[in-house]
Design goal:
This protein is mainly alpha-helical and about 180 residues long. It has nine helices and no strands. The mean pLDDT is about 85.
Length: about 180
């Protein structure tokens, strides 16, 4: 990664960080593919899709243009960067419909709620719960990394709750005990 960065010229620190993030993402994906662990690959792809969706939504809130959004999206998800960039100017309904189609409607309810209340924490929590549900099927395979990944995701969900409670002490925790 360092040697690849050394061969580039960057106009500012943001372009350097973006380059490093994307390069790291590709290198990590190559390593995951070489391990031939279906649950690890599933986690990586879906979490990339989730990160890209949240990047898209935050960028729309900041009124970023399509080029800025494109530069901040990560490769190796199941949804192409070009498809996501087309959603920059789309309506809330079009975005919800696109992701519902890509994920068999599992993103519909969380996105609809997000478009009503604008709560990124609730959206992130719901999408991570979806990821846990997807990986739970793989958890029975002793050779799979699914149990470890599920544990890590549950800790991510707890961090979301801690952030929410820190910002608003009256907030209820969203973590469930499953």
């Amino acid at each position: 990664m360092i040697s690849e960065a050394n061969n580039q010229t960057f106009s500012d620190s943001h372009s350097l960080v973006t380059f490093l993030e994307k390069t790291f993402q590709k290198l990590m994906y190559e390593q995951i593919k070489s391990r031939q662990d279906a649950s690890l690959e599933k986690y990586f792809v879906i979490s990339t899709d989730i990160n890209n969706l949240i990047t898209l939504l935050r960028s729309r809130k900041l009124r970023s243009d399509a080029e800025q959004v494109k530069n901040n999206l990560l490769d190796c998800g199941s949804i192409s960067i070009a498809d996501i960039v087309h959603l920059v100017e789309a309506s809330d309904r079009e975005i919800a419909s696109f992701y519902a189609t890509a994920y068999l409607t599992r993103f519909s309810e969380p996105l609809d709620l997000f478009f009503e209340d604008g709560n990124f924490s609730s959206l992130e929590h719901a999408l991570l719960r979806f990821l846990v549900d997807e990986l739970t099927r793989d958890a029975v395979d002793i050779k799979s990394s699914a149990n470890i990944i599920i544990y890590v995701i549950r800790k991510q969900i707890e961090l979301i709750d801690i952030r929410r409670i820190h910002l608003d002490r009256a907030s209820a925790a969203m973590v469930d005990e499953t």
